[in-house]
From TrEMBL, chains A, B:
Transmembrane segments: none
Biased composition (Basic residues): 672-683
Biased composition (Low complexity): 660-671
Disordered: annotated span: 660-683
Protein name: ASKHA domain-containing protein
UniProt domain 2Fe-2S ferredoxin-type: residue ranges: 10-114
Family matches, as Pfam families: Fer2 (PF00111), RACo_C_ter (PF14574), RACo_linker (PF17650), Raco_middle (PF17651)
InterPro entries recorded: 2Fe-2S_ferredoxin-like_sf (IPR036010), 2Fe-2S_ferredoxin-type (IPR001041), Beta-grasp_dom_sf (IPR012675), Corrinoid_activation_enz (IPR052911), Raco-like_middle (IPR041414), Raco-like_middle_sf (IPR042259), RACo_C (IPR027980), RACo_linker (IPR040506)
Length: 683, 683
């Protein structure tokens, strides 16, 4: 707020931030926004040529704020603004805040969609508005021409101009620019746009790219390197819009399907790490080409890049041998945020492009979990939130603004269908949804690639094309949960052989029984071993969650987010019926599938989020489940469906759960112990 | 000084710094030195294993300081010190300051030659002791082992150890170390030595190299890239000693003998700059190999590098096209100090090695002149010093602690023998010293490669091997000065044809006369044109100096330093007889031939000197001689020998100068004007 302002001066309210202040008549609106800390973009520094500082005046009486705002409370179009509106498009009602001045009370809307390049369209998927404060700032300056009386170098005069017009002092200059600075200055006739990278406000600003004349765009990529899929978003750093997205299977799959097999590959092949690092770099360069082709963006205009991934993906991306993550004490080479150069990581971007990687939380809780935490923000809430990313190792984060704790739990690959007799990856022909009639014990199901449910007309014809080839992760959760709800399996996970009398779907299979889910060209059965595998996996997950709840001293969570690919597809209700997660109001259990990618985008568009997640990760208390004495007890209790000791009252309101019985505790405990030891050795 | 210290506490004086303070008995001597700001090296951080912190106790009564110092005033050998003395050599009288404590009054000598590697010997040439405060610090630390309860990464725990033991916070880590940090930590069994680069105390420290266990050495190179010769010194950053030096002809000579022909080459060949940049990088890598081979040092142990050179060498080294330096306004791409990476400049050193280049003063006054200024320190003196580096463009610096001014003057290549009929480069067979008998007008001379003077026994036999092939720069200065002193040429530079009657050495040569300097297999004559060429060159130089003296409002300089290769070989007396430089006490005129190289070494060994020269260069007032109205007048006056208007009373005390006559002013002025215009166009 203007220090000279008095109560008689106009009152200005900026939306959506809600910041307000009084300013003398004649104050420039951009200047007023800056004084209030409202982020309004500007590349040209108020020369009225970039058009980035557009705002909209809200007309009308805003009684709540005591403001009557009108277009007449702003100065008329000046020369700069007229020139801009003639040369470029300035939508009706839009003004350039660098030119318009305050002449009365105002409600000023700072639109979040200011785009000056017509070809760039917003992606439909991009629904979340992220407040911007990027690490890259595009700064147009007019540089003094060389003067024999003051023989300062061209670069030195450019630095002076950046200090004079933009307040940057003590600028670091990337070596690659030195040979180019003279040509660019002359090409731009002493007017250039400097790309300044400043991740931390306390760090020295770095000049990383330089363009002749006005360069009115700059881009960044945010990337989630998953063990299965790599996803990339291309965003404008000046408008915040996501303008292209692409994904690809992680090519490291050819070295090993899951994380641990990739670590084994590295341990057994001298060049294994290098080969996998190259593979991921190549895949990333392919995605860069793809998003650039889709949007017509030049890759050298991508000036910032943010990456997240689980610890093993994180290490392989950075060229670090992940062997240490394969065994206790699971030492990360680096856990803090990593600042690097795209060129050092072989990424085909601008020479000066910087790379930021979010911190890892622990040896099995990676930068992807940190990004999901940043996105979902348990640390910003009063409610206690549980965030779970289910994979071979589940990453678990639990807490609220008071305290956040995290752990990983060795669930193994069962949820991904790997230890299930009829399991398969989520692809065409896989059963993904299942319902079982508790009276007839007959199932109906949905198959990936087929629109109709199996009891609907047209299913058979469509399914002929895809085949019905197996059951994917979400299908396994549903079929076992439905078997439990239908009374086919007991609370302790035993398939009830006595039902064979009632239904041909229950068949004897050696000393145990199986359930025939599909009997077509292939026969898909859920065996007793399949049920056990899911029990073991979900018990490990739940035990990890319980340890964190113990640490927090809580018996109930307010909110649950299921992250990752698996989390996107499972039905929260069935996850809870099986007891993967603790009891919770079902309306507050949600898939947050792309939380890691969104967290990466947040860190790309706003450096403040980088500091936020760094501080949060430092403060997060890490629990090593393997070292907790109560893990075993929680594990044994969690073998039961949904749980031997924990009640699920919220779930019971939505689903009719079978009555409780005595669990086969000894059996479950023995199995649990064997399982855990086996898993830990392989991890 | 210990804050708790009282007047009763022991008084400790450190030499050679002369800093003193009182400390409580039992205070560690290293700690006392640090408190007083006395630089004492230590790699192991006081563990008594590196031996770098050696000091010597001076015994006796130091009345001036009121101290009686004795070995008994220091604690007896402790366990650490005994162990070190047993394992390694600890010279008689030496103590480890990290172990010995103060027990009484002491005079402590901090030796400047502490070396712990026997194979490293001091170069004889290295006579100047440079106070050390290098940008590289070697820091031994013991890092906590990984702990599953606190899953901080290995690198993160290393950073914590560096903060705990060495006070470095917020460390930047070079990307190339990330893949190696885990192996190095394990190889060193959690003890490692980190190389920390911190050029400015306010900058974030950077971890640039990491070694398992104790790494008790680190090296740096200082390099002067001359247009003719490239010289490199390899120094220990831990002892300050120069341990190897090497030089090589600048391979760019094949693209052009002098600077301007190299700029022309770039302008005419699209790949010219790249070819010359590669040539100098290759030459530097050859020198690196050479100094490393000579000293047995691994190139990857060279962690810091300082370069100086004239503006065109500076630009070509950095990969910058020097075309802009070829014409007005002679715009430097960058004038300030440059911080870069050796790997970006294709130097085969450690991945993390940093490069520092001193600032340039102006478009024709380069980083070499800045380094010479740093070395000779006019800005540190009360006396007014003139520093001249004679080349195709002379670089001139003049001033004292009050004010320093600088300029370049277009002397052309005459001093290098290029426009002289019998001129040649300083090589075997070149006449380098000349004396002329004023009675007989007979010369005697010395020839490079021949020990005897030409009138001494054995000359003929030796000269048969080398031949007498031409006259090099210093020889030309001497022969023309001697011709002037012998009355062969007049004050205005005309060879006196009337002397042909007295001596056969004076011969008619068209409308003018020549002097026969040598008449053997080849005949070497000094023609009237040769004399004119030297007059024009020296007049340009002197006029530049006079402009700076005008700016300083002085008529006399206290001290003159002649820098560069030319400056190393010319006799100051003859330079003054010809009037290249103004009158000065001859005892205070000295060759400072290697001042630029020494300045580079100073910046290598002490980052404080980097700040000193940066501040000095910023403060230096630059005069563009081409724009000064008085240049022409000074030039015309300086055509006379030694000068038409300026007196040389100091010189006259040492040398009998011919009586003054009327100069041929009109002729000289016309020549000067033509010359200047011609030169500037080519520059």
């Amino acid at each position: 707020m203007d220090q000279k302002a008095s109560e008689k001066d106009p009152l200005v309210l900026f939306m959506p931030s809600g910041r307000r202040g009084r300013f003398e008549k004649g104050t420039n609106i951009l200047e007023a926004a800056r004084q209030l800390g409202v982020y309004v973009e500007s590349v040209c520094g108020g020369r009225g040529i970039c058009g980035r500082c557009q705002i909209e005046i809200q007309e009308g009486s805003f009684a709540k704020h005591g403001i009557t705002s009108a277009n007449e409370h702003v100065s008329a179009f000046g020369a700069k603004e007229k020139r801009y509106a003639e040369k470029r498009e300035l939508k009706d009602g839009r003004r350039l805040s660098c030119s318009a001045t305050i002449e009365g009370d105002l409600v000023v809307d700072v639109p979040q969609d200011v785009q000056v390049n017509a070809q760039i369209v917003r992606k439909a998927a991009d629904t979340r508005l992220i407040e911007r404060n990027p690490a890259i700032q595009m700064c147009y300056v007019e540089v003094d021409e060389p003067d024999m009386h003051k023989p300062l170098g061209d670069l030195d005069r450019l630095k002076l101009a950046l200090e004079r017009d933009w307040g940057f002092s003590d600028i670091i200059v990337d070596q690659h620019l030195l040979p180019r600075v003279q040509k660019i200055l002359r090409e731009g006739e002493w007017a250039v746009t400097a790309a300044i990278h400043q991740d931390m406000e306390t760090a020295r600003p770095a000049l990383i790219a330089l363009y002749p004349g006005l360069k009115n765009e700059a881009y960044g990529i945010a990337c989630d390197i998953g063990s299965t899929t790599i996803a990339m978003h291309l965003s404008s750093l000046l408008s915040g819009l996501t303008i292209a997205s692409a994904g690809v299977s992680n090519p490291q799959i050819r070295f090993g399907e899951d994380l641990m097999s990739r670590v084994s590959y590295v341990m057994m092949h001298p060049d294994g790490q290098e080969a996998m690092t190259n593979a991921v770099h190549n895949a990333l360069n392919g995605l860069i080409e793809e998003v650039c082709a889709e949007s017509g963006v030049d890759p050298t205009d991508i000036l910032d890049a943010v990456f997240v991934g689980n610890p093993i993906m994180h290490h392989l991306f950075l060229g670090i041998d992940p062997t240490e993550l394969g065994g206790a004490p699971f030492a990360l080479a680096v856990s803090g945020a990593v600042h690097s150069w795209a060129s050092d990581l072989n990424l085909a971007l601008n020479h000066g492009t910087r790379v930021y990687m979010l911190p890892c939380i622990a040896g099995h809780v990676g930068a992807d979990a940190a990004a999901a935490t940043l996105c979902e923000g348990p640390h910003r809430q009063d409610e206690i939130m549980l965030l779970v990313d289910v994979g071979t190792n589940a990453e678990i984060v639990l807490g609220n603004r008071e305290r956040v704790v995290a752990a990983s739990s060795p669930t193994g690959p069962a949820f991904e269908g790997a230890e299930i007799s009829c399991g398969q990856r989520a692809a065409s022909g896989a059963i993904e949804r299942v319902r079982i009639d508790p009276q007839t014990l007959e199932p109906r199901m949905r198959v990936i690639g087929v629109d109709a449910w199996s009891d609907e007309p047209g299913f058979a014809a469509q399914a002929e094309k895809t085949g019905v080839t197996g059951v994917c992760g979400s299908g396994i959760i549903e079929v076992i949960a439905e078997m439990f709800l239908a009374g086919i399996i007991s609370e302790d996970g035993v398939i009830d052989g006595s039902l064979a009398d009632r239904s041909g779907r229950i068949i004897k299979d050696g000393r145990t029984f199986s359930y025939v889910l599909w009997d077509g060209d292939t026969r898909l059965t859920i065996t007793q071993n399949d049920v056990r595998a899911i029990q073991l996996a979900k018990a490990a997950l739940y035990a990890g969650i319980k340890l964190l709840m113990d640490k927090q001293d809580i018996a109930h969570v307010d909110r649950i987010g299921l992250a990752g690919a698996f989390g996107s597809f499972i039905d929260p209700k069935y996850a809870m019926v099986l007891g993967l997660v603790p009891d919770c109001d079902l309306d507050k259990v949600k898939s947050v599938g792309n939380a890691a990618g969104t967290g990466a985008r947040m860190a790309l568009l706003n450096r403040g989020y980088r500091r936020e997640i760094e501080e949060t990760v430092t403060a997060i208390e890490k629990i090593e489940t393997a070292l907790e004495p109560k893990f075993q007890e929680h594990f044994v209790n969690a073998m039961a469906l949904p749980n031997k000791v924990d009640a699920f009252p919220e779930l019971a309101r939505a689903v009719k759960l079978p009555a409780k019985a005595e669990p086969a505790a000894a059996d479950a405990a023995a199995g649990g112990r064997r399982r855990r030891e086996g898993r830990r050795r392989r991890t």
